[in-house]
Design brief:
The complex is a heterodimer. By secondary structure, chain A is mainly α. In chain A, about 20% of the residues lie in helices and about 0% in strands. Chain A starts with about 45 loop residues before the first helix and ends in an 8-residue tail after the last helix. In chain B, the strands form four sheets. Chain B has a five-stranded antiparallel sheet, covered by helices on one side. In chain B, strands 1-2-5-4 form a four-stranded antiparallel sheet. The chains are: A mainly alpha, B alpha+beta. At the A-B interface, loops of A face helix 3 and strand 13 of B.
């Protein structure tokens, strides 16, 4: 089962960003580069701050791995906006 | 005659005290292992007592006289078992090595070397030594999500001067072996995720229930490990 990144709306995370115990998954989103439990709990970024910075820097694919075919950051972000159930930090 | 003996005792005690406070490791310990046994050798810049801690327990013989050349002979080792040896003087821990006897490989050793100028300061370095030792398992058996390893290495490999992703993954495995041997602070959460921290070097790692690594880095914020979820566990006895 895949999970959606609460920062950039990438739908391919391998784990929920937060576990039942509220700990970070330590997964690095391959799309925006946010590391759950590190970018926030150690570096102090909120999801909104990271998203804003990522967009300012061109919304580039973050991972060394190749992006999915036809990956499009703008469409991905737009998809997030259409999901009112998403929680913001 | 009596006063000379007293003076001699005082001199030995004084030299021992000075040595213990200022001792530094010279080079890296060497381990030669053979069937059922091993010899560990190391050098210090000043004469001091020879201390070695072996986990799991093994029979150990060391020289009693303070010296700069130190030799410890280990016997009764179980073939194929992994041992952690901590070498040092009576007062300070100088280096930790992990090896398995018998076998031939290169292992990474984390050496914790006290500064001579400031006994409270610690210099942490990772050094490769050749030893009769079991190598770490292959990366695919160490790292939980292999696709993510290059990203973790790119972000955190510099914390440990890892030369490549495999080196970084191997260090994370060796950190867990050392953490278990030394009983470093650790927590496990309700999903079985293990979190380990070394306060001395500031190293943090998290492992899946099956022992594979989730991440390995040095946090920059104070109290990071304290804020992590989970119950405290004793890694020496935790299964």
């Amino acid at each position: 089962m895949k999970h959606t990144c609460p920062v950039c709306n990438f739908p391919g995370l391998t784990e929920p960003p937060r576990s039942k115990s509220a700990g970070g998954s330590f997964e690095i989103c391959p799309s925006c580069g946010f590391q759950f439990g590190v970018s926030d709990d150690d570096r102090g970024f909120t999801y909104d701050q990271w998203r804003e910075n990522w967009i300012k820097q061109g919304s580039k694919w973050s991972s060394r791995a190749k992006p999915p075919a036809n990956w499009n950051a703008a469409e991905q972000l737009a998809g997030r906006i259409r999901k009112p159930s998403d929680k913001k930090r | 005659m009596i006063s000379m003996r007293r003076f001699g005792c005082f001199l030995i005690l004084a030299l021992g005290l000075v040595s213990a406070l200022g001792v530094e490791l010279v080079g890296q310990p060497e381990i030669e292992s053979s069937a059922g046994g091993a010899v560990v050798r190391w050098r210090t810049d000043v004469a001091c007592g020879t201390r070695i801690q072996v986990t799991p327990t093994a029979a150990v013989e060391v020289e009693k006289t303070p010296d700069t050349q130190h030799t410890a002979t280990l016997t009764g080792l179980q073939p194929g078992a992994t041992y952690t040896v901590v070498v040092g003087s009576a007062r300070v821990h100088l280096a930790t090595n992990v090896f398995t006897a018998p076998g031939t490989a290169t292992v990474t050793t984390t050496a914790s070397i006290p500064s001579k100028k400031d006994s409270a300061a610690k210099m942490i370095s990772s050094t490769k030594i050749s030893a009769e030792a079991k190598p770490a398992p292959p990366t695919r058996k160490i790292w939980g999500n292999l696709e993510s390893l290059p990203d973790h290495f790119a972000r955190h490999g510099g914390d440990f001067h890892a030369k490549d992703a495999d080196d970084y993954a191997r260090m994370s495995w060796q950190f867990l072996q050392r953490a278990k041997a030394e009983g470093l602070p650790a927590k496990v959460d309700e999903d079985g995720v293990l979190r380990v921290f070394d306060p001395q070097s500031g190293t943090f790692a998290s492992y899946n229930r099956n022992g594979t690594t989730k991440t390995f880095f040095k946090p920059g914020s104070n109290g990071y490990f304290d804020r992590q979820p989970g119950r405290d566990i004793n890694l020496k006895t935790w299964k």
